[in-house]
Fold this sequence. Notes:
Order of helices and strands: HHEHEEEEEEEEEEHEEEEEEEEEEH
Number of helices: 5
Radius of gyration: 50 Å
Number of domains: 4
CATH topology of the largest domain: Elongation Factor Tu (Ef-tu), domain 3
CATH class of the largest domain: Mainly Beta
CATH architecture of the largest domain: Beta Barrel
Largest sheet: 6 strands, antiparallel, barrel
CATH superfamily of the largest domain: Efflux pump adaptor protein, beta barrel domain
Number of strands: 21
Structural class: alpha+beta
Strand order of the largest sheet: 3-11-14-13-12-15
Amino acid sequence: xxxxxxxxxxxxxxxxxxxxxxxxxxxxxxxxxxxxxxxxxxxxxxxxxxxxxxxxxxxxxxxxxxxxxxxxxxxxxxxxxxxxxxxxxxxxxxxxxxxxxxxxxxxxxxxxxxxxxxxxxxxxxxxxxxxxxxxxxxxxxxxxxxxxxxxxxxxxxxxxxxxxxxxxxxxxxxxxxxxxxxxxxxxxxxxxxxxxxxxxxxxxxxxxxxxxxxxxxxxxxxxxxxxxxxxxxxxxxxxxxxxxxxxxxxxxxxxxxxxxxxxxxxxxxxxxxxxxxxxxxxxxxxxxxxxxxxxxxxxxxxxxxxxxxxxxxxxxxxxxxxxxxxxxxxxxxxxxxxxxxxxxxxxxxxxxxxxxxxxxxxxxxxxxxxxx
Length: 372
């Protein structure tokens, strides 16, 4: 209709006779429709002719396409992204073995020296060790009888003065109180028999001494661990063995000084003397102890704190440059501090002995990110 409108406008401008344009308009319209119909028929005939010849053309195109594929297989074999190297990933990185976190290969992590030092990663060298075989026993701490003193008045009388009280530290020979004797009415002094701390006091001015304990003094510079050794353990525990006492403030090393029977009990008591000069232990404290019953030399061992589990296998992280690589191990005997290495590691290898769990956590985090 737009073409016809344009035609009418053209006629109007040329002929200056509107009525004549109206008379010829139907004729022109019929002519335009006839021309359009003829064009469609011609298009249909051409389309049918192309379809008749199309199979031969498609076979030729197919052969040409196969030739092109064969050419690609014999040639460069480009992938759909046009990357020429198999090692390149979707970002165009050439090293397919190392990801953005620096994990060069499976179960390894790359940490530069400064960063490793900041997070507390410590390494040491794998070498021969002597394993200390121990058994575990339990007991309590006590003050020795010779380190406890109960002070009484030599003669009954009246307490005239008191010098010490509970908690005071006194020296041997120091005056504790003055007593007026009932018999002679003379005043005499009561002195500390040992150096130590006053833990009990039953003396006040004006009171009668009678026969009671006036002061109790205890020297806690030394304590004794009395450890229960049951029949199944008694053959292995003897005097002179090393013992490690585990307390809240740390480990205390000592020696089994005596083994004595416990009255009316089915166990023996292994007694070990402990240095308590810092006064951080007290009588009555329950303790755990490890008695050393044997020593076994091994050709290669690693620290227990270094061993981690990855993929169901135990091993350590071996340091190679800035890379920490998990190395599975075959472990043998052990003590409280070391594992014997049967296979998987060479003597002199540098491995992470402290805070190895940080490297394990880094690897597991990276694997979780890759799964997503």
